[in-house]
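This section describes the prediction task in plain terms. A model, or a person checking by hand, is given the sequence of a single protein chain and must write out its three-dimensional structure as a string of C-alpha cells. No templates, partner chains or ligands are provided. The sample shown here is typical of the held-out split.
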Amino acid sequence: MMDINWSALIGTAGAACSALSFLPQIVKVRRQGGRDVSMAMLALLLAGAVLWLTYGLLNRATSVVVANVAIIGLVSTVAIMKTVHDRRDASRRPRPRIAIDMDEVMADALTEHLCRYNAAYATSITPADLSGRELQEWVPPAHREAVDAMLDSSFFEDLAVFPDCQTVVRELTDRYDVFIVSAAMDVPSSFEAKYRWLRRHFPFIPPSQIVFCGDKSIVEAHYLIDDRPRHFAQFKGQPLLFSAPHNIAETRYPRVASWKEVRDHFARLDSRSGNRVDASVSEVIGPVTAAPARD
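The expected answer:
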C-alpha cells in the first residue's frame, strides 16, 4: 500500500488554491475593467511571489516553485490587463470643454466700431472714454440708430484678432474641447461674415465646434470666456470675464485682461486638477450662482 505524503499533498493543494484565486480576478478585469484593482497591491503580490519562488528554488520545494510560477504569471496578466483597460478608459474620458465668445474676446470689434463712428461724425472717441458704458450709451440719442446700423455684414469681415489669441486658443485645443460660441442672433446678418472670419483666423477649430446662438446657457461647457456678464447668469460652468471698457465695473466674476492671462489661468487650473473630467458639468463643478444680469 502506497504511503501518502500528506505534507506535500496539503502544500500542493494550498499552492494550487493560491494560484487559482487570481482566475476570477482576470475574468472580472476582462469584463469590467481594472479600475477597482490596486496596482500597488498587484506589485506587492508579484514581489512576494518572486521571493517565494526564490525560496522554493533554494530549498528544492517543488510545490512552492510551481505555485509561485503560476501566481507570477497570473498576477502579471492582471496587471497588464488593468494597464490596457486604464489607458483605453483614459482615451475615452471626455475632455473639459471651453466655450469662447468671439466679439471683444477674440475679435476687436470695439476698435472697428469706434473707427466707423469717428469717421462718420468727425469725433475722436477712444476706448478709455467708454469706461463702464457701451458705445450706444455714450453717443447722443440721435446717433444711436446709426451706431446700430454700422453692425452690418461687412463689419465682421476684417476685425483684428486680439494679441496672442490664436496661439493660446491653439494651445488650449491640445487639452480641451474648444467651442466658439457667438450670440450672432443679435446681428443675424453677421452669420456668414463671422464664419468666414473664424475659418480664416482659426482654421484648427472645426466647423462642428462653432456655435451661433442667442442664449448661451444652452451650451453645456465647463468654462465660458465672455465679455458680457449677462451670459453668465444661467451658465452652469465656471465663468471667466474678458475685460472690456463696458464691463470695467463688474466685480462678480473672475477676470482676465489678455490672452496671456487666459493661458496663465488655465495653466493654474491644470496644475490643481490634472485636467481630468469624469462626470457631467454640474457634477464636476456644480452650478455657479450669479446675481441677475443687468442689461
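For orientation: Residues 97-107+161-285 form a domain with the Rossmann fold fold (CATH 3.40.50.1000).
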